[in-house]
Structures are given as structure tokens and as C-alpha cells.
Write a structure and sequence with these properties.
Layout (H helix, E strand, L loop, with lengths): L1 H12 L6 H8 L3 H10 L12 H17 L7 H4 L5 H21 L10 H18 L10 H16 L2 H33 L1
Helix pairs in contact: 1-2, 1-6, 2-3, 3-4, 3-8, 4-7, 7-8, 7-9, 8-9
């Protein structure tokens, strides 16, 4: 996966204008998963990046829906025309290069269950949930990183047919849901203690 992704991103990098539509067209096979990875690379750090999470979170969410229903990229005409400035794509490219080395080392447990339709649907649901949390504009450290990590493991797991990585990604999604529910009940209790 890493060689294929880096080769495709190198081709895109040399273009004068880089649009999301161009990335999908150039990568073609497995472009849905690679598009998710391209969108989460800016969040693979603890400090949230203001202004990016809502747009990129929506793009990833749509890819999760696409994975659930037909396994193909899902972009609105407006999103297809989004232009990625060369300096931002350079950041994405460097992050992709760094993480491609990492993924080739951690991907070790290939399993045929990862290629089933049920696996794609479950992973698609996890991507949608994680993308929804990612897109929330929360000024909290790790608020983007944790859901991005979930999406990263799921996408790499699907690209590499690695069951362990997929399970890690889905496990992180479950922990994100648990944290959200815990926070909701905690806030609700505090609200009642103060105002009721």
C-alpha cells in the first residue's frame, strides 16, 4: 500500500492545480481509503488545526458513507472542486511519506475476513462516527487526533487486509463513543447540580 499511495501522491504533487477530484481520478483503485488518509494526515498531531476539521471531517464522513453503500468515493460537485494549495499538499505529502514507512512495519496480520462486505460496512460505520467527532470544532488537545487515529488504523487495515489494524481502529472508535457518552452524563449531572 505505501508504495502505491506514495507513487499516486507523487503524481498528484507535480500537477499545477490539485483538486480533490484530481486525487480520486489519479489514484482510482482504493481512492476512497487513500482520500480518507490524505484528509486525516493534518490531524495526526495532538494540537487541533482550526478551520480544517469541519471541511475535512465532512469529506471523510462522506467516504465512510460511500464505503457502507458501494465502496466508491462519494463527493459532492462542490467538494470535488476544492483546491488544495501546494504548501498544504506538501505537508500532507510529507506526513504520508512518514506514515507509509510506519504502516509497512506494523501491518503483519493479513486475514481474508477483511475483504468481506460485512467488514467494509462495519468499517464504514466506524469511519462515519469518527469523522463526525473529528469535524466538531472543539478547542481541546487530542480532540482531532483520537478520531483521526481510528480512521488511520481502519483505512490502513483495509488497504493492507490487516485484521489487527482494523480491530484497533474500531476499538478506538468505541472508546470515542464511550468518552462522548461519559462526558454527556457528566455535564448533565453538573448542570442539574448547579441549576436544579
Amino acid at each position: 500500500m505505501s508504495d502505491k499511495m506514495m507513487e499516486a501522491l507523487s503524481e498528484v504533487k507535480s500537477l499545477p492545480i490539485i483538486m480533490l477530484e484530481t486525487i480520486v481520478e489519479r489514484i482510482q483503485e482504493e481512492s476512497l481509503l487513500i482520500l480518507c488518509l490524505v484528509c486525516i494526515f493534518p490531524f495526526m498531531q495532538p494540537i487541533p488545526i482550526p478551520g480544517l476539521s469541519s471541511v475535512l471531517g465532512l469529506i471523510i464522513l462522506l467516504q465512510g458513507i460511500g464505503l457502507i453503500f458501494n465502496g466508491k468515493p462519494l463527493l459532492t460537485p462542490r467538494l470535488k472542486k476544492i483546491v488544495i494549495p501546494p504548501e498544504k499538499f506538501e505537508i500532507i505529502y510529507k506526513a504520508a511519506k512518514k506514515f507509509s514507512v510506519f504502516t509497512s512495519r506494523i501491518s503483519t496480520f493479513k486475514h481474508p475476513i477483511t475483504t468481506t462486505r460485512a467488514s467494509q460496512v462495519i468499517c464504514g460505520i466506524s469511519i462515519v462516527i469518527s469523522a463526525a467527532f473529528l469535524s466538531l470544532p472543539l478547542p481541546i488537545p487530542f480532540s482531532n487526533f483520537v478520531p483521526a487515529l481510528s480512521i488511520f488504523f481502519i483505512c490502513v487495515g483495509l488497504l493492507e487486509d490487516d485484521l489487527i489494524l482494523i480491530l484497533c481502529g474500531n476499538g478506538i472508535t468505541l472508546s470515542v463513543i464511550w468518552m462522548a457518552m461519559f462526558s454527556y452524563y457528566l455535564i448533565q449531572e453538573q448542570w442539574r447540580a448547579w441549576f436544579i
